[in-house]
Design goal:
Elements: E1 6-7, E2 14-15, H1 29-48
Antiparallel strand pairs: 1-2
The chain binds zinc ion (ZN).
Zinc ion binds at residues 8, 10-11, 13, 26-28, 31.
């Protein structure tokens, strides 16, 4: 049996990581970049814009910022 199936933390897809895969916790390099870039952007937005105007519908998702 090769590697067991894992769940990608980014897209939630079940996948089988290739042995020695560089983007291990994720199903692909793309998901790794998306996830990393995602929270980096969020952090940046929060740190940069303290008083967020109404032009930010993204804060409506109800997800606590990490
Ligand atoms: Zn994925």
């Amino acid at each position: 049996m090769p590697s067991p199936a894992r769940k990608c933390p980014n897209c939630g897809r079940t996948y089988r990581p290739a042995p020695g895969s560089a983007w291990r916790p994720f199903c692909s390099e793309r998901c790794q970049l998306v996830d990393l870039g995602g929270w980096l952007t969020e952090r940046h937005a929060i740190a940069g814009e303290k008083a967020a105007p109404e032009s930010e519908p993204d804060t409506d998702r109800g997800e606590p910022p990490r």
